[in-house]
Amino acid sequence: MKLVRARADFLRGFVNTEEDDSALEELSRQNRDLVQVLSELEEKREQLERLNTKLEESNNELNQANAQLRELSAMKEEFLALTTHDLRSPLAVISGVINFFTSGRLGELTGEQKNMVSMMERNTQNLIELVNDLLDASKLESGTMRLDLATIELRGLTDDLRQQMLPLAAEKGIALEESVPEDLPPLRADRAKLRRVLVNLISNALKFTPRGGRVSVSAAPERGLVRVSVADTGVGIPAEDVRDIFDKYAQARSRATRSEKGTGLGLYITRQLVELHGGHIEVHSEVGRGSTFTFTIPTAGSDE
Ligand SMILES: Nc1ncnc2c1ncn2[C@@H]1O[C@H](COP(=O)(O)OP(=O)(O)OP(=O)(O)O)[C@@H](O)[C@H]1O
Ligand SMILES: [Mg+2]
Question: Which helix (H) or strand (E) holds 271?
Answer without folding.
Answer: helix 266-276
